[in-house]
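To: structure desk
From: M.T.
Subject: fold request, one chain
Message: Could you run this one when you get a chance? Sequence is below, nothing fancy, just the single chain.
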Amino acid sequence: MWIPTEHEKYGVVLASFRGTVQHGLPLEIGDTVQILEKCEGWYRGFILKNPNIKGIFPSSYIHLKSAHVKNKGQFETVIPVEDSVITEMTSTLRDWGAMWKQLYVKNEGDLFHRLWHVMNEILDLRRQVLVGHLTHDRMRDVKQHITARLDWGNEQLGLDLVPRREFSMVDPDEISVTELYRLMEHRHRKKETPAPASTHHLFVHVKSLMSANLGEELEVFFHIYDGRENRPLSERFFVKLNKSGLPKSPEKTERQCTLFVDLGSSDLRKDVYIVVHIVRIGRMGAGEKKNLCSVQYRRPFGCAVVSIADLLTADSKDDHLLKVYACNTESEWHQIHENLIKKANSRYNLSGSNTGLAVALQLLHGDIEQLRREYMVLFTRGVSITRKLGFSDVIMPGEMRNDLYITLEKGEFEKGGKSVARNVEITVYVLDIDGQILKSHVAAGAGEPGSDEYHSLVLYHNNSPRWAEQIKLPIPVDMFRGSHVRFEFRHCSTKDKGEKKLFGYSFVPLMQEDGRTLPDGTHELIIHKCEENTSLADCPRYLKMPFSKANLPSNNQTLKGPKESFWITSFLCSTKLTQNGDMLDLLKWRAHPERINDSLSKLKEIDGSEIVKFLQDTLDTLFGILDESSQRYGLKVFDSLVHIINLLQDSKFQHFKPVMDTYIESHFAGALSYRDLIKVLKWYVDRIVDAEHQDHIQQVLKASEYIFKYIIQSRRLFSLATGGQNEEEFRVCIHELFMSIRFFLSQENKSTSPVAQTQAVFLRTFPAVYGELLKIFTVREVAGFVRETLGSLPTAVHADCLEAVKLQCITKTVESQLYINPESRCILLPVVLRVLQAHMQEQKDLVMCARILTSMLSLIKKEENGTAEPVVSEEVELIVESLLGVLLRTILEISNRPQPAGPAMRLQFQDVTGEFVACLLALLRQMSDRHYQQLLQAFSSKDNLRDFLLQIFTVFRILIRPEMFSKDWTVMRLVTNNVIITTVLYLSDALRKNFLNDKFDYKVWDSYFYLSVIFINQPCLQLESFSPSKRKKILEKYGDMRVMMGCEIFSMWQNLGEHKLNFIPAMIGPFLEVTLVPQPDLRNVMIPIFHDMMDWEQRRSGNFKQVEAKLIDKLDSLMSEGKGDETYRELFNSILLKKIERETWRESGISLIATVTRLMERLLDYRDCMKLGEVDGKKIGCTVSLLNFYKTELNKEEMYIRYIHKLYDLHFKAQNYTEASYTLLLYDELLEWSERPLREFLNYPMQSEWQRKEYLHLTIVQNFDRGKCWENGIILCRELADQYESYYDYRNLSKMRMMEASLYDKIMDQQRLEPEFFRVGFYGKKFPFFLRNKEFVCRGHDYERLEAFQQRMLNEFPHAIAMQHVNQPDQTIYQADAQYLQIYAVTPIPESQDVLQRDGVPDNIKSFYKFNHIWRFRYDRPFHKGTKDKENEFKSLWVERTTLTLVQSLPGISRWFEVDKRELVEVSPLENAIEVIENKNLQLRTLITQCQSRQMQNINPLTMCLNGVIDAAVNGGLARYQEAFFVKDYIMNHPEDGDKIGRLRELMFEQAHILEYGLAVHEKFVPQDMRPLHKKLVDQFHLMKSSLGIQEFPAYVRASPVHFTNGSPRTCRNSVPNIISPDGGRGVARRSLPSYPAVNRYSSSSLSSQASNEVSNITGQSESSDEVFNMQPSPSTSSLSSNHSASPNVTSSAPSSARGSPQMAEKHKHSRENACLSPRDRPVSAIFPNPMDPAQRAPPHQIGDATLPRSDPNLSAPDKVRPTPSSWSLDSVKEGAPSFSDSFGKMLCPPVPPRPPYSGSSAKNMRSQSPVSASRSPQKTTVPPFTPSPTECQSTSLVSNSPVLSGSYSSGISSLSRCSVSEASGTELPAGDHASHPLPPPGTLPNSVSSSSDEPIRRENKTPPPYSVYERNNPRRPVPLPHSLSIPPQTDPPALPPKPHQLRTGSMKLDGTSDPRVPRPRPLPRKVSQL
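Reply: Done. Structure tokens follow.
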């Protein structure tokens, strides 16, 4: 049975539990769980981080921990009983863990590793704390380290600042807001500005001296030197080096390392140096040879200096190499460092080129104890301390020091009978009172232990040596008396013996007879003469003699002459000995009572350091004198005491205050002194008003704190001694003293008067007295003193300085122990409030006011139950009454002031605001219902209440500002928000009661709503952005304050009634912003307000256009800021639709909601796309979708224009310059050429409409230029030029014409890449709305093939799945929760343009029209219908042709547009076969023509193409077609295909004929090395002819030229009725095919059944189809190549009306009738003249001359390749070749009917027709022309549709191969496939239109041919060859035979009179049986 747990409430998981049992709760090791129930070894509970999931788990897996339970019962919370630092550590490390992993993901390696180290450190420290074996101090240190690291990590990760007190987190509810603010501020400041250390230390570590010429031991001396005052600042540090230049005692680090301690901040100057002197120990001369002399001398070696300022900038870890300068002239040794400092280096040599002293130098900061903790290793390893000369800046009591420093300055010596000067060495000894040498008390410096004696330097041959050597004599204090220092002078001989001869001595006693020590300064000592063997052991004898010239008797004869002297400088640094006689006189006052007066007077002149040395003794002396003779010396003693007290105020001696405090508490014994002290103090106070000089009185008042301490302590001692006698008398004295004080304070004076200054001095020290008075008086009495004293100050104070001091006094009062007591507080509060109010109203001294208020409010706390004590409640009431209004005004004032410039000022300014805000919050938090009621009732009028509400709402808005608190102060912000919402709930009642109905006040309500909205939108309340743990804490503590405020808004809105109209539409935007907050409850509350708004707006104006407009405007800006989501869109839609169900205006409401919802869809998509990094199609597509929505559905012009520019920026960034131009053109089209002024908008300045349109035009032209879309740029140039011309702006007109000309040049000269086009389908619900389940056609990038495009799309949609087929997907795909991409290449169908039909137009002009302004695209998919014949697949191979029509033409404002319409037709296997062979013939013709016109630099493409076709044909390639279509079964079963079968046969013959012609051309151009291949081709060709059963070509074949300009014959309309839709133009591919010049090429106006008759003519002439086409089958199973899709001409069944058949003139009718007769009846000349008539053959030169290039408009250019011009003309096609036999009697040509022009709009839609002008001039056809056709190579790298039609260089047949989409190849098809074809002589050309499908269509998985015709320099992007205008006559090959046609040869007759322009009559249909 499950039992609720009592004590087992909280535990930690010890081992992971999978939770596989029923109701099991999976647990991870380390999880914390809260336990609810237990049962037989199992617990039931939940994991604290996920409290919603409850379950059971084994109790053995849990380690229980003690915990507090709050709110016992269903909603209980558990708080573990453990150190709060541990709790914080645990939760923080959990939070960090997740973020730490993210750092790795974001590649922030540095922070990742640093955080990892810190986390490990914290875990180690946590273990130490948990073990619990630490001492109290160590625990404190560990916690400090932990919190420091936690704070560092939180700061690095951008987490919140944690308020702490004593390392523990503070609960903001348990302390005052002001206190919380202080803690946050303190931690913030601590983090930002660490206090600079005032004490610094220099660490020196000597490494070595590097020099080439050492060989002797060295002594190195360091000291710190002041270059400004030319004096040393420290004693010397002394290191001995061996002969190698390394430290002599390497094992003793204290002898190599030192710390120069106690450097002040003033010592870190540029002119403070580290000076190094180096002394060698050895022979007299450095270069002397080694002799027998073993005596060692100390000789100068060198010097180095370095500035301390350099160390501040240098890297402390690097060693410094100090340059050592050698001293050349020893007489300058004493000042070598000064000269180096002055940069006088030139007089010294570097002691060697590579000489240097290697030392480590490092500056350390902080006091010495702090260093001991931080640099433990340094101190444990050993480091010597080198002290400052003299005391440090701050003298610490208890510091013991007694050092005498003596500097050997200089000497003056006589020659002593020698010819050269002496080498003098001094030996120094210290001797005690008994004449014994003191051992180890002479030190050359720190670092080495002291020795018994010291030997000076020896300066060579110098009778006036200057040593400047400092030695230290650390003599104990008790040995000072009687000791002296003796200096012995010896001459050092340089002779062999090297002996040192004594010749004199000096001495100096250390202490004088009166107890004073040797005074500091320079002393000239007498040199006493002596002999070498003189014994100096008898000290008393020479001590009687004078030692200094200063105390020399006038008649002493025993001394050397005045020339011989020795100078020393002494300096004593002692805490026990004094050199001051006056001090000694005072201390010995009893010995000389007569000197007391004099000594007291001289006390003020004694140095402070001397007084503090003997502080206790001095004070004892003073009070001793006071006790014995107070009448006589009372005033003097009082003044001396004041002097000493004020001395301790000095920062140097401030640390001695505790010494005085200790003295007062423990040693002071003057029980009677209080009377004298009170009396003298009162005497001084009474004299203040009248005294002229206030200085001394001010000094007295400064000392009043300690005077009161002495008075109170003295009185207590007296009471203790006497049992409390004279108590009343004492009280009276104190009262009288305070009366005097109040009197002098009440005086009104000017600020400059001395009395006012004295008042200020007293007020500064007065608060310090409170604590002393409390020792004797009660709290109420002291509070009374203070109130009366402060109350006595004049109210109208003129002195500003006094005002400030008065506030400081109040501050100290409020912060004093006195004010903390509630009893005294109620007495003092009115005084404090009065002063505060006055100051805050005048906005003076706000910093102090804030401080006072903070202190006051931090004392007021509510009790646990939330109620305040009565006393506290009264205080709050008082403060609210006095200060709330003025506090609000102050915050408003401060916030609205301009921010001061200086950073320090700004900081202070900010502090004040924060302090006042904290005070306001603290006050509001303390207010209860009663306080609010009293506050609101206190307003005398509605206006006052209104002003107050406006004021407080405004202040709250200020508090919510992000800049109010630092970013990481979330704790403070949450407290602020909690206070605000509580207050607002109280005030909303007042708003309802006082400002509704007839008293409605819009401003107050507006302010209220505005506050509520920005409150909800605060970043710190958006809980969704926080970590789960943080969110949980906030919800537990405060709940979701946004929902509370939302409910309050809704409630207040409902109360408004008809006043709601005042807030429509103003509040729509703000409320919309609130509903976008991702909080479901808040949304549910707030969204219905929009229904209310719509309802009220409907009532007011009958519609809600305003609501709609505002909603739409705000949605755009808010959603672009990242607000709102898909859930919101659905919620908005569902809630509002539900709300308006019963409204009368339901329809219009639904419309509005639908519009807004659709806008949201697009905005959300737009936002999601914009989050991506790079510019991609998704962003552009999304922007286009949104832009169109704004234009078409919302008609929001401004938003439309904004998005035009956003789209323009995207295109520009992606370098889509053409699309960028089209986009900007949208804005340009909105503008007129007018002078209307336009406002500043986006990046446009204020300007006229004309100027802006001009600017846009120029920008667009520039972008069209960059996008190589020059034709479009030209149009805009012309428009601009017209404008300039109309304004006579010829300068700009000229520029514009030049720009236009340059664009024309670029069209002709520069190469343009031709784009690929891809169809993309986006299927599945996961796509954005603007893409979902739609298909688009996309214009690829330059050089982008299908694979690259496919990869790009998959990168843009990384979650998408690429579909591997091209079939239309079914509904399951449409509705799937996934993304499916279907991509394949499509072929553009260019719109019919006149330029494409014109001859002579260069291909680089035509190419523009083939790939621009494209609306329609085509795609072919092969498939098998019916049973598939395994032997011959062609029988059942059909092609499904899909035509896609776009909503906009490409290129446009986007690289892709949606498909508007798709149409499907099917192409039969026979038609397919016709197309394949047509394409191959077309390719062959193109290559032949290119070769003829010398456009091919390399003949290889032609060779390979011929080889492919002939080889395939010989091996049975064409046999597959024969088997499929020429068998009787097929002909019988498909009677309607008779004409097509004939056409196929005709094409086969034609192919053979073209091959023969091609081989002739090939022979002419083939290089020598390829001759064998050519011979092989010729042989194979004969084989091929024989396999086709051809010996000689029929006459009609030979007479007919090869070239067919406009593609395959159009099939009978009735034969394939449903292949293409009536408008006929959609199914046509990008590339048009050339027409074929035969009579079966019918007029484009109609398709007759004549073809079937003509087929029967052809088939009738041979015995049987099988015999004629008896070919070997190809070894491979064959299928159609994807490069050769069925021509739309073949499959077109469009009625003639759709294609616009023109009305023909009468003169053409005869020809037409002739053409339409049956073959037997009509004259042969109507079709062909006699081919054998030599008279009609054109001479070769005529043909050659006629080969002018022309173009076929329906033939499109190759992918990315410019069309190659050819030499075949289409003129005769276009113009019908009138009077043919007259013009060219020798040419064999049949008459050709004219090509009808297009009529109506079909020109646009019908790509299967070529528009022709019927009235073209006949002169153009005077010679047989050759035109280039811009058909070209089909690139096969594009995808194909389903099974591929693979092509080869065979006769167009090859195996059915690679069928999967992914196999699309990147190889290009030979350009010959699409190049132009040779035209026959004029007259032989048919009238039929061009078919766009003779050229290859893009299919799925095309198998590419092995090479491309254009593969020369660039196999992928061949450069077009130059236009050939004519073919030279000498290159003319044998004439191509005429194209085969369907007339029986037997019926051919010549009719020279027939007019080729006359249309033929429509032939009667023939039956298949007639074959």
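Reply (cont.): Confidence is low (pLDDT under 50) at residues 902-907, 1595-1971. Let me know if you need anything else for the meeting.
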